[in-house]
Amino acid sequence: MNNFIILTPTFNDWKSLSKVLLEIEKNIKGLKGKFRTLIVDDASNIKPRLHLKNIKRLRKINIITLKKNMGSQKSICIGLQYLKKTKAKAIITIIDSDGNITSSQGIEITSTITTHELVSVDEFKLDPIQESIYSFATLIGCFTLLLILPMIAYFSAVYKEKRDEEARLGTPEWKESQDE
Length: 180
Known about the structure:
Order of helices and strands: EHEEHEHH
Strand content: 5-15%
Distance between the termini: 108 Å
Number of strands: 4
Helix content: 40-55%
Mean pLDDT: 82
Low-confidence stretches: none
């Protein structure tokens, strides 16, 4: 059996929220599972007043009252954090209760819930020999990049300078200036 949580933020619109809950109640009649409602009161100025006369399955209602108005998105985030802290295992549906109620006539919602059996869980093991080889290869790679490549550049420059010096010494103008 699945658990469902309806998360909804509200601010001063308890009448519309009651209508939304009634619409949800009508639409979940054929569904199996347990239903809970989490209302995040975004620092309403009006005392919470829900009309639950015709609501039977959504009776378990929790209300989180915020001290400061945070806006609907932040309220939803706070509600999700609360559910995470309580380690709620459920399918969470977020519904905005801002008074814009759209009729569900002509809208069909189909959901498929898939569960999988766990085949096996194996402990992750490290092979110390293989990890040592990887570490050694990394060490050689770093050594190559940090020492050998700069040394190649240095010795190439020294060799080029020596060759240029020999070429300069072998020119006739250089020999004549040294003889004088």
